[in-house]
Design goal:
Layout: H1 3-31, H2 34-57, H3 67-81
C-alpha cells in the first residue's frame, strides 16, 4: 500500500469522524435525556463502526497499476483461497 493511499484513507476517516461525532454529541447533550445518552451514543458507535470497517476493508487502488490488473489479481487470489 502506498503512502499517498494511506494518507487519503486517513483523511477520509478523520473527516467522517468529525461529520459523525460532532453532530451526534451535540444532539446527545442538547436533546437526549441523561439516562438515555449512553444508549444513544452506543447506537451511533455501531453506525460509525460500520463506516470504519468499510473504510478499512475497501480495496485501495495503486496509482501505478491499471484497474484491470488489480481485478485480475484479486480474482486469482480469490480462486486460490478456496
Amino acid at each position: 500500500v502506498c503512502v499517498c493511499c494511506v494518507g487519503g484513507l486517513a483523511l477520509t476517516t478523520w473527516r467522517g469522524a468529525w461529520m459523525c461525532w460532532v453532530p451526534a454529541l451535540a444532539i446527545a447533550f442538547r436533546f437526549v435525556p441523561l439516562k438515555y445518552r449512553l444508549l444513544y451514543v452506543n447506537f451511533v458507535q455501531v453506525g460509525f463502526g460500520v463506516f470504519i470497517s468499510k473504510q478499512a476493508n475497501a480495496p485501495v487502488p495503486h496509482p501505478d497499476v491499471p484497474d484491470t490488473l488489480v481485478h485480475a489479481a484479486e480474482a486469482h487470489a480469490h480462486a486460490h483461497a478456496h
